[in-house]
Amino acid sequence: MLKNTIPVSPITADVETFVCHTRTDHINVNATKGYVLGADKRRCVDLDECKFGNWNCEHYCVNVIGSYFCRCPKGYLSDDARCLDVDECATRESNDCVGDCINTPGSYTCNCSLPGFAPSTDKIQCEDIDECKENNGGCEDICVNDYGSYRCLCDKAGYQVGADKHNCTDIDECAKYASKICQNGKCLNTNPSYTCECYNGYVPDDKNMTCKDVNECMVNNGGCAVTCINIPGSYKCACPDAGYSLREDGHSCEDKDECAMQTASCEDECVNTIGSFFCLCNKPFTVLGNDSRTCTYCDTKQYYNDISYQCEPCPPHSQTSSPYSNDISDCVCEMGYTAKLDDPTICNDIDECLIDNNGCKYKCENVPGSAHCLCADGYQLLSDGKICGDINECLPNNGNCAHLCINTDGSFQCDCKHGFTLDVDRHSCEDIDECTLAHYSVRTFVKIPSEVTTVSVKEAIY
């Protein structure tokens, strides 16, 4: 590795080593290398090797205690004896040139070929040229120096740097900011700004950047007699409801005659009122329907009142038999009810069970306006609603029996297969331990209405 010094094993200054050789006739003393015997002939002192030539050093010899080393000047590196030139242009980190680097013995120079740079006094680095110092860089307004360059700016509002990059020209804001300024108006470019020429119903805002809507309703209600509605760029007058319309002046309201305009849709007669209308039904026994336009008869639970011209409700549990009923006496009790003797407008419930049990074969239960038959447990009503028939509990899910289900009149019972006995829950079957019995017999029966048939008989004796 090259270096700028050549150390030659220096020895520290406190070395006092020397060698004595004893002979019969005298003492011979040899000093350590790098030292010489002192004047007292007893101590070793440093030898300044550099006084006796350069000791093969190409440039400088530097003495140290007990030794010496070679030193190279700046721009050179040592290879233990020689000093070799350093090529500062070989790497970008070893020079400060902005442009071309030219190596020289022990140094280098910069060509500084890039625009905006010039060589320093010592020519070993490139310095930025401040173009703004001379004639403001040719800029009309502001000159800003940058590293290796410069730029012109315009400080005056409404101006920008022109195509020559030096002079200031007017900004055409109308073209540059077309979508942002003078909305709802026309943009007029001026030097050095612009103005907005707003459309009708708009005025310039405080900064004259755009046009804002004028709320005409804020002044004298816009001249409207009733309601003023502001809309972008204009306004309009409105009337309180659908029964009025604007006059031709567009500001005042007048009644709308729905009957004359045939917009009322009345089935019979239409009567106009200020701001509205209503329908009448002149046909006998008819009243206005729920839509207040069509005419309808009273329903069966109402009668027509000739005085109020309205449908009145019949008393509870009564109804009329004709749409032309016009008196409460036309309301008669519904089936299952009977009129009270002293007040025919009151309908009392008839207890149908009092007469022949209402035809029920088991039990009759009276309910308001009617009655129905009931059956005992294990039975159900047949299609006539009067007679009760047995329910076969074995049909759905085998009556929940584990083995056999036997239907009976009004009930059922579970039985078990051979070798099992019925559990206490009367549905499950438990295994019989025949080994614990000395004698057993098993009989299985199937019960059929009106007769019993023995299916099997088996006896065994042990």
TrEMBL record:
Family annotation (Gene3D superfamilies): Laminin
Highest taxon in the source lineage: Eukaryota
Keyword Disulfide bond: yes
Annotated SUPFAM superfamilies: EGF/Laminin, Growth factor receptor domain
Listed InterPro entries: EGF, EGF-like_Ca-bd_dom, EGF-type_Asp/Asn_hydroxyl_site, EGF_Ca-bd_CS, Growth_fac_rcpt_cys_sf, NOTCH1_EGF-like, vWF_C/EGF_Fibrillin
Pfam families per the UniProt record, alphabetical: EGF_CA, FXa_inhibition
Zinc-finger among keywords: no
Protein keywords: Disulfide bond, EGF-like domain, Glycoprotein, Repeat, Secreted, Signal
Location of this chain's protein in the cell: Secreted
Major localization listed first in the record, in broad terms: secreted
Domain EGF-like intervals: 46-84, 85-127, 170-208, 390-430
Record GO terms (molecular function): calcium ion binding
GO terms under cellular component: extracellular region
UniProt name for this protein: Fibrillin
Source organism: Sinohyriopsis cumingii
Phylogenetic placement of the source organism: Eukaryota, Metazoa, Spiralia, Lophotrochozoa, Mollusca
